[in-house]
Amino acid sequence: QKKMTTKIPTEILIKILNNVQSSRSTRDLYSSLLVNRIWCKVTIPILWELPLGQECYMHDERLMKKALFIRTYISLQLLSKLIGGQKRLEHLSIAGNGYLDYNSLFWAIISRKETLKSLRLYSVNFTHCLFLASSFTQLSGFHCTYLKFAAPKYSQKFIIKILEAANRNLKSIHLDLYPIITFEIFSAILNYCTKIEELTLHNLNPEQVIAMINDNFYELRRFSFDSG
Prior knowledge:
Helix content: 40-55%
InterPro entries: LRR_dom_sf
Strand content: 5-15%
Number of strands: 6
Protein name: 9478_t:CDS:1
CATH class of the largest domain: Alpha Beta
Largest sheet: 6 strands, parallel
CATH architecture of the largest domain: Alpha-Beta Horseshoe
């Protein structure tokens, strides 16, 4: 993870951090001090030059979007560093906004695959990491929610990969996907996750419910569903 945060050339990093020189984003500059030494070295002169009590209001929509992107990027770097450093992490929950690319964060999560038992994702997209989803063989709990604007096809494939990898180790599944749980995801649950004890599925169609009742789920302790 440290290598990833230092790949940006220093000159480019200086330009990026110089774009958050406003009273509304001073906290982002302070946050960047904690990423690593290079970020700290670049940030200190920028903070030193800021006038005390500086006021700056961004009327330019493009500038505002850039500032928000930089804020998110810095936050992801800090979060990735935090997760990657936890040697005994067992339960992890992440809530996103559906639009952002969380691939850098995913690598930090992968580094904890040996200890991670429960993973909860809310509108978090991993666009280029499908092949790494098979690393989660130790999961006993998987909860995933995607909003209307955050359920592209690759998200469905990512979920299927998780179910296939964890297989019979999964004891708890909670899926709330828009617009419905696809036939492929439902089939993956039936085929791979036969030791489920707690199952919550939203946006099922009647045929899927019948198929679930007729299948070999004999260890369920809790089952809830709705048809959307």
